[in-house]
Amino acid sequence: MCPYHPVRVRVGISPLTLTDLPHGVAHRPTGSLGTMTADHGAAAASPPRKRTAYGKETWKEIAFLLSNLFTTLAGFVYAVVSVLLGVGLSVTVIGLPLLALGLGGARLIGRSERARARGLLGVKVAEPSPLPRHRGFFGWLWGSLKDPVAWRTQLYGLIRLPWGILTFTVGLVSLLVLWPVLPFLSRGLANADRGMVRGLLSPSDELERRIAELESDRGVVVDTAAADLRRIERDLHDGAQARLVALAMGLGLAKEKLLDDPEGAAAMVDEAHGEVKLALQELRDLARGIHPAVLTDRGLSAALSSVSARCTVPVKVTVDLAERPAEAIEGIAYFTVSELLQNVSKHARARTASVEVWRTGERLMLRVHDDGTGGASFDGGTGLAGLAERLGAVDGLLVVDSPAGGPTTVTAELPWRSRPAA
């Protein structure tokens, strides 16, 4: 139904499909993910700079090869001592903590080796994601012991001692007696070093960044759930519960006056009847805020039509879905549109708005458009940043296209997860 042209967009490690929004700003929770880049094809690589035999690059490689002896010796000693000490004492209460601390130190060694390789060999190796924060001592212990970055760094230190001795010897001899072939030897040995750095010290982007992303998303989900529970508790305490308490007291007083003052008792019962209606309405509103019944019974189309009817401007709703997504995704889609329409009512000063929902591959797409004054942003106090955090918790994405003067188009993308068979 929507003739949109998809553009491949990469956020961190997750390839996502977005509609063509040339002026839009995509928002994804920061942390381990990095920045967003449009993947419209590889950029034309600049021509490599011509290398001279005894140029700066050669001397940097020689410096790296000569320094290998000292760094590999230190790395070997550290790896052997920290691993053997931790494993040997693992039968005691201090063994595993010592091993975990040793692995933490290995991360620092890996960082210094990557910096040395970047500075002298020009190897562009990204830093691995930091260890996720774990609650409590045992969480930290288990997270440290299963850290793949630290273990690969320890392996790097163990296997490189013979190589460090070899490269130091060959580099030194070449400087003294093999001067004509020095550039070729240094480049060949340095290329082997580059391979080892990339193979053992570079992050396994797909896995490690995904783990960090999921750890961050789990924290967002926990915080969001806790905030929702506090909101429900507050609404119950200050709303329906307070009305029901007042209702019980009023009915108690009416009971006492029933014989002595029937007319007064009747008036109190009539007042209590009004309180019952208000309490029921508040409970309905609260239940709708948790999960509307119309969404469960009739799906997104009916639920979005219902929420759009409460908007202060006319809203056209178009839902083109052959089947329903999973309940959790459907609920997130509903509340996303609901919050965006609240922003339209409160901030947009619009005359009309529209809501479109459709499926593209394995993604559920939502678009809310209004002809208001524009200027919406993630730091504008409209709750868009929090909404983006919630979408990010399920591998979703939020894109805002809202130039000053309008119009505003907000596109949300969620993973399509099929509804389990009954």
Task: Describe the protein in words.
By secondary structure, this protein is α+β, with helices and mostly antiparallel strands. Helix content is 59%, strand content 12%. The protein is built from twelve helices and nine strands.
What descriptors fit this protein?
single chain, 422 residues, alpha+beta, six-stranded mixed beta sheet, 12 helices, elongated, disordered N terminus
Largest sheet: 6 strands, mixed
Structural class: alpha+beta
Which stretches of 5+ consecutive residues score pLDDT under 50? 1-25, 27-47
The residue fraction in helices comes out at: 55-70%
What is the mean pLDDT?
A: 77
Shape: elongated
Radius of gyration: 32 Å
Spatial strand arrangement across the major sheet: 3-8-9-7-6-5
Task: Please report the number of helical segments.
Answer: 12
Query: CA-to-CA gap between the ends?
Result: 29 Å
Q: Quick one: how many beta strands?
A: 9
- Helix-strand string: EEEEHHHHHHHHHHEHEEHEE
| Percent of residues in beta strands | 5-15%
